Amino acid sequence: MQDTKIYSYIFKPQGKIRGIIQIVHGITEHMGRYQEFANYCTNHGFIVYGIDLVGHGKSLYQGHIKGYFGKEGSWENVVNDVYNSYLQIKEKYPDLPYYLIGFSLGSFIVRNLMIENRSLKINACLLLGTGYQSPILLKMVKFVVKQNGKKAGEEHSTSLIDNLAFKNYNKKFKDASSNADWLLEDKKARKQCLPLLWTMEKDVTMRSS
């Protein structure tokens, strides 16, 4: 959403800095979930940097909908948020090796970012939990999203899209308490995730499926 303040995190090592690792988190979570990984990286000399995507973590403000990026076309705003955060940290540390990690939804954002900004000065890119949907399945999901959006409005939350996107991932979790349990086996860490329901925003839902 335009004019929304984006919360950023930076973890710095003590002593010599070896490089920068920027993380783009996935859906139903936030950068706070990467605290343990960030501590490991800083102990080995790396700066860890990232933002809470709009609608997630500390970039979710009162009156906003969990996981909602905004109206149609807002996907580009989210990609730009990540790009601008890259520019900010790169300007401050222009000569350090730069590594970019995208997890799940974050991996699609990074893929989009890499395609649109070929001038990115990074040393390596790691995509975790990324994927590819069959055109037929994607077409069906888009149709369902569009029809539900017409009926209830694009800002309406629905368990239907949540189930379509994540329910099958939870089959191996007998005591699953939400559709996000598949993200982590560790129950304590799982509680740090941000459970949410999909909204009917066409562009975001289609691009992140």
From TrEMBL:
UniProt cross-references to Pfam families, sorted A to Z: Hydrolase_4
TM helices/strands, residue ranges: none
Protein keywords: Hydrolase
Key word Hydrolase present: yes
Domain of life: Bacteria
SUPFAM superfamilies given in the database record: alpha/beta-Hydrolases (SSF53474)
Residues annotated as domain Serine aminopeptidase S33: 16-175
Name under which the protein is recorded: Alpha/beta hydrolase
One GO MF term: hydrolase activity
Gene3D superfamilies given in the database record: alpha/beta hydrolase (3.40.50.1820)
Record organism: Candidatus Erysipelatoclostridium merdavium
Keyword Glycoprotein: no
